[in-house]
Design goal:
Blueprint: H1 2-36, E1 53-54, E2 59-60, H2 62-74, E3 80-82, H3 84-112, H4 123-139, H5 147-154, H6 158-176, H7 185-198, H8 207-216, E4 222-224, H9 226-238, E5 244-245, E6 250-252, H10 260-268, H11 278-300, H12 306-333, H13 349-357, H14 360-377, H15 388-405, H16 411-436, H17 442-474, H18 479-485, H19 491-499, H20 501-521, H21 525-534, H22 562-582, H23 587-595, H24 603-611, H25 631-647, H26 654-670, H27 681-698
Antiparallel strand pairs: 1-6, 2-5, 3-4
Length: 707
Amino acid sequence: MRSVRKFLNALKFTYFSLFMITLSAVILFTFMLDIVQKETYELKEFQIAHEAIRSLKTVEDTVKTEQERDRAANEVAPVYQFSEDIAKNRQAIATSIFDFLIDVKKEMVSDNAETEEEIKITEKSVEAMREKLSALEEEEPELQLSDEAIANLLSEDINILEGIKASVVKVLGEELSKPLRTTDLTFAKYEIERQLRLSNTIPTQIEQPVISIARSLLVETEIFNEALTASRVEEARATVEPIRILQGQVIVREGQVIDGEVYRQLELAGLLTNKTQVKPLAGIALFVSVMMSILFLHFQTWRESSDVKKKSLVIALVVFLLTVAIMKLVSIIEPEFDLLIAFLFPTALASMLIKLLVNDRLALTISIIIAATAGIMLQDGYAAIVQMEIALYILFGSITSLYLLGNMSRRSTILRASLGVSICNLGFIAFYLLMTQTTYELTELTFYAMAAFTSGVLSGALTIGLLPFFETTFGLLSDMKLIELSNPNHPLLKKILTEAPGTYHHSVMVANLADAACETIGANGLLARVGSYYHDVGKTVRPRFFIENQHAEQNPHDTLPPKKSKEIIIAHTEDGAQLLEKHKMPREIVAIARQHHGTSLLKFFVFKAKELGEDVIEEEFRYPGPKPQTKEIAVISIADSVEAAVRSMKEPTSEKINALVSSIVSDKLRDGQFDECDLSMKELKRVERAMCETLNGMFHNRIEYPE
């Protein structure tokens, strides 16, 4: 049943947190709207600009970028590669042609059994040569020899053909060893023809066919490398940086005609009324969603009661929206100044408030969210979309305050922490000014130094000023408030000290025991200590009826009936609660006064009534309660009983103290006094151990000094 109730509480908190965080997200988005809804202009092409217009953001001009890349690509020269293999291949073809001629010639000689001079060229021999050349002619379309040219070549002597072959191969080799492109071929062919005519090794009747063969075999030796050229073109395009319209850049000057190119740039920069700013709106919405999701996850993973988490969430959101409102105010007046007045923002306000009101973990989370939000909301002129110097400035100031506050919450500690934040701010601003590499005048440096100091001091001052408001509004009992209540000069504590000094001493002892025990189980030791100071304030109504305030005088209970004594003793819890309420003390302190006895039985007066023969109804001799509702009150109830019992022991030893504490805890446990608080058996054992250690330190054996 308890687990079901716990699940339902968690479910209720989930819906509550979703509603509150969504509402805050909408408010934050509204505050940020004007960041993306910048000033636009209703302009037309060829209109004269009435004022200078600057770009409000940095955007890439894709049209100009592409034009520049095309220009760079067109300037890349085609890549050609020289190949030595081409010369060898062409020489090999020339050699093959003349070898074919020589082979056919030899076959003709052997078939006719005649001398070379007597052989007549027949159709058969021409056909044989044509057949050998057919494959070459298919590969080399320019190599076309007529039947007459073949017959003339075959009519020459073998030795002459060998000499012609050598000449052609040599001339081809010389020309093809040079880098030749298509444009060079005409001159190269002319040069081959000239050299062959001057060689005097070619008979006149076959000079033309030989030159034709040589010219047809002349080709380019430098081949266009398409892949390498394409690669260099891409490299050239890649080296061109994107052309950007920079934030703050003047697009059109006053009095300038808005031509097509300028109009295109204005449209690209989103400065025309017909250009909808959808992307920035989506970006801001995404940013707000991420920030609020982080806050939601923080509370979902926080192991605490639903009521505490609800109150803490509301406090966190109120503090967050308060700081956002301050940012909004700063952003409104920022344009009126030439300096970056965002440095006046109280950097540590939110972190201090959340730490003092809730805890460190939530304070750190809120600090990060506020720093990121400030980076967007406190932009200066034409800065980037996130003003990093402001974001870091606030983040460093916030973290510094968390460390400097520590576990102390006095006002003096807050002021010291705020001075530490001022020093941190000064250091960061010095870094900022040095990194900008700009020469600043003395007035500017003075302003920034004062802004850093003011930011830190303002954080502390606003924290001290706002704390009472939050404590009153949310019914909070902060550590600082508890420390103030522990001041011995508090009217109620002075009342206890002067009117019931024994009770005051007893309360201080109980406070020491309760504080030590609470620390061992992770409860609020400071609350237990301060609550113990006031838990018996009701005894000041009738101080002499309580034994610790009786000094060698008759006990008034000796003459009173048990029932009357019971009423006086029991009344001190309600008297104390009413007295505390009258002084507007925190409800946690009032609860301690009312609940620290729970529904315990006044055994002494029960036994006394029985001894007197009275009819005893035990329920009438019990405190009205309620039973302790929190761990702190349960621990105080144990400490209250233990301190009184140990003080009444004549010779307290470690063994006696341990046995007595164990007995008191067991008795309260059997009586059901811890049924309504979340105190486990394991924690009870720790409480018992801690109290025994503290009591043994208080009542240790002392050295008996000689007279």
